[in-house]
UniProtKB/TrEMBL annotation:
<dbReference type="InterPro" id="IPR052701">
    <property type="entry name" value="GAG_Ulvan_Degrading_Sulfatases"/>
</dbReference>
<dbReference type="InterPro" id="IPR000917">
    <property type="entry name" value="Sulfatase_N"/>
</dbReference>
<protein>
    <submittedName>
        <fullName>Arylsulfatase</fullName>
        <ecNumber>3.1.6.1</ecNumber>
    </submittedName>
</protein>
<feature type="domain" description="PA14">
    <location>
        <begin position="551"/>
        <end position="687"/>
    </location>
</feature>
<dbReference type="Pfam" id="PF07691">
    <property type="entry name" value="PA14"/>
</dbReference>
<dbReference type="GO" id="GO:0004065">
    <property type="term" value="F:arylsulfatase activity"/>
</dbReference>
<dbReference type="InterPro" id="IPR037524">
    <property type="entry name" value="PA14/GLEYA"/>
</dbReference>
<keyword id="KW-0732">Signal</keyword>
<dbReference type="InterPro" id="IPR017850">
    <property type="entry name" value="Alkaline_phosphatase_core_sf"/>
</dbReference>
<comment type="similarity">
    <text>Belongs to the sulfatase family.</text>
</comment>
<dbReference type="InterPro" id="IPR024607">
    <property type="entry name" value="Sulfatase_CS"/>
</dbReference>
<keyword id="KW-0378">Hydrolase</keyword>
<dbReference type="InterPro" id="IPR011658">
    <property type="entry name" value="PA14_dom"/>
</dbReference>
<feature type="signal peptide">
    <location>
        <begin position="1"/>
        <end position="17"/>
    </location>
</feature>
<dbReference type="Pfam" id="PF00884">
    <property type="entry name" value="Sulfatase"/>
</dbReference>
Length: 692
């Protein structure tokens, strides 16, 4: 193995050419001006587990008037050197669905993993890793996964990371493993057998926990990341990398490290990968779960408060260590770093006889709600982005965004576009402060049987309120939120977060404006999602509302796009090479590789329809904003993909995107059954129309 320390000796030789190499321009799009030029950067996505928006100094702790505060100086520096995304949202307020949406680039209305489906298999579809690998990147995940599916080993886990586009995996596979932060040790203080026992940790196809005595996972994952980055720089200096570093902290159990963070940082200091069984990292020594950061001792804090603050500070030290490593390797300006969390702050300790609450440090910040809530404290994430010489330092972005936006963002950074399936938009114009970006779809659906915590920091109306079926949707600059949904007719609570971040003044019903906004929210959430039998909702059987459009012409409009695409792309940001109209879903544009048809489908009556697609290439179909038919990833040519839908009579916007054959012909066969029919047949062209 190549030691990280040795990489420093190779950097001058292997990277001087890379640093001086003329930049290659990513293709101009409708959003990004053509004068924005850069090489595809390395990308590191750091995701913490249960870290609240209020846990960062730069976002809350540094100015908090609370009697207990902790510090994150290294993360604060990252923020000052980059941009703060102050309205960035997770797709669900718990880890499995949130991480699944991040990796697959879709919101929870389209994800296969929803609610509390821990360890459910990540579907076999596009992921951040497959998209980045197709763009020429080396890919790795280090840390917590929890989306592997049934089985006991990598050969049985269909959703294992190396089966979903990652070249390398090092970390915890199963969800519960991430509750113990010493994989190679027993922990007698745990409050259950699972929290007392060593946990399996995998490196690709090998289980290695027996080699990890005294290894604290925050240190372990950081040291392994430094080592992996060093290997990429030494072995693949001309190839960019994508690293998904998924910490399992500060999620409970509230365990602390063995010792102080090693002096220094980067290649010459900080945590180091030694690679020896029983001495895998340089902090695998001393007594486990014993160290407290001196800043948090002697202030009269409780044991669990000292533990939690120490855990967050350890992440902070690790982030500083990683950033210095990039500088030492001279790839700092070629590496974009994102820092975020998967959901709001937790309220567990997993210690015998000890409880912890995020009220200790107001980890929810200026908001209300915690993990498992759809109030702002549960879904607004502490998110920072740094890319020296590209992202202006000290930036603050208040425009709402969500996890699914990272797939198109990273695809654009890599010089391409995201798959048509993604629900996200590229954040690059906002990050670079160049051009105007498209509006993000902010959507959450989630079910939990509990209640919002009864903290005095929260308003009386929220304390102890049932969660149950919950939903969030942003529209026209307002947040709509529903909890304990019994039926689709239940109204949204509507909040203006710009003036009411604690969600205290419900605007619903206060004027005709908000009556109409509530109606539009209720319609739109039916138009942007599809039902999933594993996570039933009280609105699954509602008719998808039609739209009122006049002056339509027969057939569909189409646009053709040139380029080299290995999958059906998202075309919204691309410039069309040719446009036209067709009676159905068939058109030819010489030299083009993608055809995009759009218009309206007319449902003759209210009722249950089945829509299907078949193509000799690949295709993807949306009705309104809902992705209804996926014939793209791993699609066997000529097979039928179908879905049942409940449609209101009238017009429904439809988009069909497909790859063209060698002659430039793009063709998709649409099939359907209406409520009065039983057998699939060709959808008649007369039900298709388009606007002039």
């Amino acid at each position: 193995m190549v030691s990280v320390r040795l990489v420093g000796l190779l950097v001058a030789l292997t990277l001087s050419a890379q640093v001086l190499k003329p930049s290659a321009a990513a293709p101009p799009t409708a959003e990004r001006p053509p004068n924005i030029i850069f090489m595809p950067p390395n990308i590191i996505f750091i995701l913490c587990d249960d870290l609240g928006w209020g846990d960062l100094g730069v976002l809350y702790q540094n100015t908090s008037l609370h009697d207990r505060k902790h510090k994150t100086p290294q993360i604060d520096r990252l923020a000052l050197e980059g941009v703060q995304l102050r309205a960035h949202y997770c797709p669900a307020p718990v880890c499995a669905p949130s991480r699944a949406s991040l990796l697959t680039g879709v919101h929870q209305g389209h994800a296969a993993v929803r609610d509390n489906q821990f360890d459910k298999m990540l579907e076999n579809n596009h992921t951040l890793a497959t998209v980045m690998r197709s763009a020429g990147y080396r890919t790795a995940i280090i840390g917590k996964y929890g989306l592997q599916g049934a089985g006991e080993n990598p050969g049985q886990w269909e959703g294992y990371p190396t089966h979903r586009g990652f070249d390398e995996f090092f970390g915890y596979v199963e969800h519960r493993s991430g509750h113990q932060h010493y994989p190679g040790n027993s922990w007698p203080l745990g409050n259950s057998p699972a929290h007392k026992s060593p946990q399996k940790l995998w490196h690709n196809d090998r289980e290695i926990s027996s080699q990890l005595a005294n290894c604290y996972t925050t240190d372990l994952f950081t040291a392994r990341s430094k080592h992996w980055i060093g290997e990429q720089v030494a072995d693949h200096p001309e190839q960019p990398f994508f690293l998904y570093l998924a910490y399992d902290t500060p999620h409970a159990a509230l365990q602390v490290p063995t010792c102080a963070y090693p002096a220094g940082s980067g290649l010459a200091g900080g945590v180091q990968w030694l690679g020896k069984p029983g001495e895998m990292i340089n902090t695998a020594k001393g007594e486990i779960d014993s160290y407290r950061h001196p800043d948090y001792v002697g202030h009269g804090w409780s044991d669990v408060e000292e533990r939690f603050a120490t855990m967050v500070r350890r992440i902070d030290d690790s982030v500083g260590d990683l950033l210095q490593t990039l500088k030492d390797m001279q790839i700092d300006e070629q590496t974009l770093v994102v820092f975020s969390s998967d959901n709001g702050p937790h309220h567990e300790s997993y210690l015998q006889g000890a409880e912890y609450a995020p009220t200790s440090f107001q980890s929810y910040g200026p908001f209300e709600g915690t993990k498992r809530d759809t109030w702002e404290g549960g879904v607004r994430m502490p998110t920072l982005v740094r890319w020296p010489q590209h992202i202006p330092a000290g930036g603050v972005d208040e425009q709402p965004s969500q996890f699914q936006d990272w797939m198109p963002t990273f695809a654009e950074l890599a010089g391409g576009v995201a798959p048509a399936r993604t629900d996200g938009v590229s954040l690059l114009p906002s990050l670079l402060q160049a051009g105007k970006r498209a509006e993000s779809t902010i959507y959450v659906e989630y079910q939990n049987g509990g209640r919002t915590e009864r903290y005095q920091d929260f308003s009386p109306a929220k304390r102890g309120a049932f969660r149950k079926q919950m939903q969030v949707f942003h529209l026209d600059g307002f947040k709509g939120v529903r909890t304990n949904i019994q039926a689709h007719r239940d109204p949204f609570q509507i909040y203006d977060l710009s003036s009411d971040p604690k969600e205290l003044k419900n605007l619903a019903g206060s004027s005709r404006q908000f009556d109409e906004l509530n109606r539009r929210m209720q319609d739109r959430v039916l138009q942007l999602r599809v039902a999933n039998d594993s996570a039933p909702r009280p609105y699954d059987k509602e008719l998808i509302p039609a739209v009122n459009i006049e002056g339509l012409q027969p057939g569909l409009a189409w646009s053709a796009f040139e380029g080299d695409f290995s999958y059906v792309p998202q075309v919204a940001s691309l410039n069309a090479a040719e446009r036209g109209t067709a009676s159905g879903c068939s058109a030819t544009s010489a030299g083009s590789q993608v055809l995009h048809f759009h218009g309206y489908l007319k449902a003759p009556v209210d009722g249950d329809y089945q829509l299907a697609v078949r193509t000799s290439t690949r295709g993807f179909v949306r009705l309104h904003a809902a992705g209804i038919l996926d014939a793209d990833f791993d699609y066997p040519s000529g097979t039928v993909r179908s879905r049942s839908l409940h449609l209101q009579a009238g017009l429904h916007p439809i988009q069909i995107t497909c790859l063209a054959d060698n002659s430039g012909k793009g063709e998709v066969e649409l099939l359907w059954t209406t409520p009065d029919e039983n057998d699939l047949h060709a959808l008649p062209n007369q039900v298709l129309s388009h606007a002039q």
